[in-house]
Amino acid sequence: MWRVAHLLLGQPVVTVTALVERLEVTFPSANAAVATLVELDILRPQGQQRRNRAFHAHEVMNLLYTGIDAVLDDVATLRNYRAGSWT
Q1: CB under 8 Å to 22, separation ≥6 — which residues?
Q2: 34-46 in b/e burial notation, b at 16+ Cβ within 10 A?
Q3: How many helices (H) and strands (E) does the chain have?
Q4: What is the pLDDT of residue 45?
Q5: What is the pLDDT of residues 64-82, one digit of tens each?
Q6: Residue 45: enclosing H or E segment and its boundaries?
Q7: CB of 72 within 8 A of CB of 63?
Q8: CA distance 65 to 50
């Protein structure tokens, strides 16, 4: 499951078949990981179809839409504060 979660940072929309190929795992393993991530609300299904359904990591998508620059600015500010260079 954590390999899938890590992958979502660079590829926030996936299918179970794509995970099988990308992570070189079995279909049941990839499907179980996706099911767990859906239960944890990390992944959300797109559409109502049962086969070849895509799932998206909505928080990663939100970050991309709202702008990663603001997040990086916040991280830089926190690092400066911790380093004692807060002015």
Answers
A1: 7, 11
A2: beebeeeebbeee
A3: 5, 3
A4: 94
A5: 777 767 767 777 777 777 7
A6: strand 44-46
A7: no
A8: 28
First-to-last alpha carbon distance for the chain, in angstroms, is 42
pLDDT band at 28 (very low <50, low <70, confident <90, very high): very high
* Domains in the chain, CATH or no CATH each: 2-82 (1.10.10.10)
Among candidate residues 21, 22, 20, 14, the one with its CA nearest the CA of residue 57? 14
For 46, the 3-state DSSP assignment is strand
- The DSSP output letter for 42 is S
- Between CA 44 and CA 54 the distance in angstroms is 9
Q: How far apart are CA 47 and CA 49, in angstroms?
A: 6
pTM: predicted TM-score of the whole model, two decimal places:
0.69
